[in-house]
Amino acid sequence: MMMPTTSASPENFEPALCPLTDMGVIEVTGDDAEGFLNGQLSHDVRSRLPLRATLSAWLDARGRVLALFRAIRTGDHWLLLTRGAEVEALIRRLRMFVLRADVQLCNQSSRWQAAAALGGIEPWLESRSIALGAGTGDVATANGALFIRVGPQLVYLVSAGEAPWDWTGGNPSGTEESAALEEIRLGLVNLSPQIAGRYTAHMLNLDRLGAVAFDKGCYPGQEVVARTENLGTVKRRVFRYSGELEHEPTVGTALLDSGGSQVGEVVRAVRVGESRVELLAVVRIDSATGNLTCAIEPGSALTRESLPGE
Description:
Helix content: 10-25%
Distance between the termini: 24 Å
Largest sheet: 6 strands, antiparallel, barrel
Number of helices: 6
Radius of gyration: 20 Å
Shape: globular
Number of strands: 16
Order of helices and strands: EEHEEEHEEHEEEHHHEEEEEE
């Protein structure tokens, strides 16, 4: 991944700005919006802070993850940010649970544009007088836009109207693949339609990512999540791997052990340079440290890489 060279002068330093064309935005309004969201999502979205992007999951009754959101209250309404999802399909399904509550859900994806800022972000923020906290989920506003802390070296910029590089004075110097690589290194999976509803919260490491609150009230799938947490019955989790692969594996590609048996499947992958690939895969815990290969190129060994919280 090509990164800009850090300048000794903060005002001259510009991080890579990477377009995020798959960012979906659902606006939730109505007097009952907060109660509705808190009753549907796996984390308590209520916050004492003025602004907070709460990473949370929406589950089905079996505890399988249907969507991942960053829920942000802005004024009298909420925004749900999601990546790689079919937003209209999500809205239709969410509306089934509104019943008689005063809640309206609207797809606002076309109004909002998003980018990821990568690299040494702090001098860049400071030079623009943007006071963004260091904690994951911290949010700041400037020029009507949202700055969302996703990781130490990753910030989402989301605005209605102009593209982020137009109002930051920067330029789209990075790629979506660069942003995907940083997200993979943080262990973040996009819930694309191919894998929505296939994995539990623990399988996707959402307990480690702070996307599950174990002390909040009921929500769909809550009993499954609580039972898994209390009994410690997690058999599969997301792990990160890298390898020299000619082809980038697609979502669902099998990971094989030394005997050729499938022990996991790819949930996200990105190419790094000409021949290297980094990926996230849901893998059996008892096989995660073994000699694994990817089914599309079984002759190339994968190397297990670390994730935050492991």
